[in-house]
Design goal:
By secondary structure, this protein is mainly beta. Helices cover about 15% and strands about 55% of the residues.
Length: about 220
């Protein structure tokens, strides 16, 4: 898929240019605030159909905060982050054309500790979407819930800036708010860009660490 190829290529380029140095990631510092702009696409199928028959495109902003210091054993060590998404652009295509908006009040992310300028993560999210037309057409609803979960990777090109590439298992259904509740299940691919802001008490430590290892603001 062209979208995935572009995202992976950009991520690998950023990782290649800036790898090989110790780096204190903002995602590993409790209290860090996170702002992101992102876009994504979904290829999905309805009602157990054997062919992919729906596409969705969305774009929005995300706001979050690192809630914990790093903890956990071995490769599971990391930090817990809470976010929420405001998604003013939501477009359903192929099966029908519908426009809408989504709000995800719960976006939980586990940022794994990782050496270098890359940070993998696991994420679970849930939200609601309203559309101009019923999805799918018929005795369904303009209101749907949208849970999702998956993995991703952040690539830091500056000390407090990062690109984000993610892939989620994605679900859409109306939770029986209509007489029919056909589900739509698919794969969501996302790409975004982050701006991190550290607490004043930790900013100096982070700046000194990254200056010693070649970090850039």
């Amino acid at each position: 898929m062209p979208f995935l190829r572009i995202a992976i290529a950009l991520g690998l380029l950023s990782s290649y240019v800036l790898s090989g140095q110790d780096f204190l990631s903002p995602t590993q510092i409790k209290g860090t605030r996170d702002k992101e702009i992102w876009t994504g696409v979904v290829v999905a199928q309805h009602d157990g159909s054997t062919t992919f028959n729906s596409e969705f495109w969305m774009a929005g902003v995300r706001f979050g905060r690192i809630l914990t210091a790093p903890h956990g054993p071995g490769w599971l060590r990391g930090t817990l982050q809470w976010n929420f998404d405001v998604i003013p652009v939501f477009v359903a295509m192929n099966l029908q054309t519908a426009y809408g908006a989504e709000f995800d009040p719960i976006v939980g992310r586990w940022n794994f500790s990782h050496s270098g300028r890359t940070t993998p993560y696991f994420e679970m999210a849930g939200g609601v979407v309203w559309t101009t037309e019923k999805i799918p057409p018929g005795y369904t609803s303009r209101f749907n819930i949208v849970p999702k979960f998956g993995f991703g990777w952040q690539f830091f090109n500056r000390a407090e800036r990062a690109m984000d590439v993610g892939m989620n298992a994605w679900h859409l259904s109306n939770a029986w708010t209509a007489s029919r509740n056909p589900s739509s299940n698919g794969i969501q691919l996302t790409i975004g860009y982050h701006w991190f802001a550290l607490r004043k008490s930790t900013r100096a430590t982070s700046e000194n660490t990254n200056a010693e290892t070649g970090g850039e603001r």
